[in-house]
Amino acid sequence: MQDKKRLPIHFAPLQGFTDAPYRNAHESIFGGIETYYTPFVRLEKGEFRNKELREIEPENNTVQHLVPQLIAATPDELRKIVALFLDKGYTETDINLGCPFPMLARRHKGSGILPYPKEVEELLNTILEFPDMKFSVKMRLGWESPEECLALLPILNNLPLRQITLHARVGKQQYKGTTDRNAFETFYNECKHTLLYNGDIASIEDIDRLLNRFPNLSGVMIGRGLLANPALASEYLKGEKLSRSEMLEKVRAFHTLLLNHYEAHLQGNDQLVTKMKSIWEYLLPEMDKKLKKKILKSTKLETYRTAVSEGLK
Ligand SMILES: Cc1cc2nc3c(=O)[nH]c(=O)nc-3n(C[C@H](O)[C@H](O)[C@H](O)COP(=O)(O)O)c2cc1C
User: Fold this and answer.
1) Is the distance from the beta carbon of residue 14 to the nearest atom of ligand 1 less than 6 Å?
2) Among the four 77, 119, 177, 256, which has the fewest Cβ within 10 Å?
3) What is the DSSP string of 145-188?
4) Residue 24 above 80 pLDDT?
């Protein structure tokens, strides 16, 4: 166990879940993460949204390594968002070429741009205008077919990218169906950049299997697997799973931090309960079904608190 190679674990951005309070609480209670990413920042009718500005504000973020992510379809949009990140003191930016939401994909944002190599090239060439910023890309295999990412390789290989994260699905799949690891392998064999694997990692064994198959991987990015087991990264690094009581103790501490934060910042108990319940969509899937249901069904703060303390006993 001692000299086994351990891959760095990156916490995937998940809109609506991994906001600043979540990331801060996660690092302070569980740790084990090399890099956190913000959910994407975008322009809406040419303007930033206040919530997204608050999310990237350095004073609201305590994690050691945070990379803000952007989504853009045109060089101009990209320039505006990168200028904001520079202004806030960031030196790294992640570019989202993976989001599958039809509303954005239709406008050639996220994975919707992948079938158009010329547009990708024009967008990504803009990074050359920002020598003080290091750029990475988070992308899918394509929108419709995994051939699309292969067609983009000559463009990607020519750019000074710090890293590429490849989610081994196409956009049309959204988050469903299986990942295509054969298609990932073809990209992996030809990609000159530091490459991270992303998609459906839920256990230490999953990471070990990936490293066996892809020994030159530079890391993995995990989203839903970490929402389900927030200790997954630290367990992997230590080579040891937490006992049930250690896990419950940590989840209780994590939950308290989040509840206290949102209680102080959200307006009214209804908003608070709705926000807190969203965490349980993924957290601890092995929890007794009845106890989980009680949490998810609660509408009042007091019943929510009681249900959670029963669930975490
Ligand atoms: C609710 C939700 C929100 C997401 N938001 C983002 C986002 O803002 N930026 C991004 O690059 N990916 C986003 N993703 C994709 C994840 O980062 C990740 O690529 C995907 O969930 C696959 O990895 P996983 O199987 O480890 O979760 C989101 C996924 C989900 C389910």
Assistant:
1) yes
2) 177
3) -THHHHHHHHHHHHS-EEEEEEEEEEGGGTT-S---HHHHHHHH
4) yes
CATH number, position 37: 3.20.20.70
Atom of ligand 1 nearest to the CA of 12: 17
DSSP type of residue 128: G
pLDDT mean over 209-229:
98
Diameter of the chain measured on Cα atoms: 57
Note whether 61 and 134 are same-domain residues.
yes
Q: Is any ligand 1 atom within 6 A of the Cβ of residue 177?
A: no
Question: Are 297 and 260 members of one domain?
Answer: yes
ipTM exceeding 0.85? yes
Distance CA 247, CA 228 (A): 12
Query: What's the order of all strands across the beta sheet hosting 134-142?
Result: 66-67, 35-37, 9-11, 219-222, 195-198, 161-170, 134-142, 92-97, 69-70
Indicate whether this model's pTM tops 0.95. yes
Q: Is 138 in the pocket of ligand 1 (CB under 6 A)?
A: yes
Question: What letter represents residue 149's amino acid?
Answer: C
Residues 267 and 126 in one domain: no
- How many other CB atoms are there within 10 angstroms of residue 143's CB atom? 20
| pLDDT beyond 70 at 127 | yes
Domain boundary among 185, 214, 238: 238
| Ligand 1 binding pocket includes 167 (Cβ within 6 Å) | yes
Last residue of a domain, one of 180, 214, 238: 238
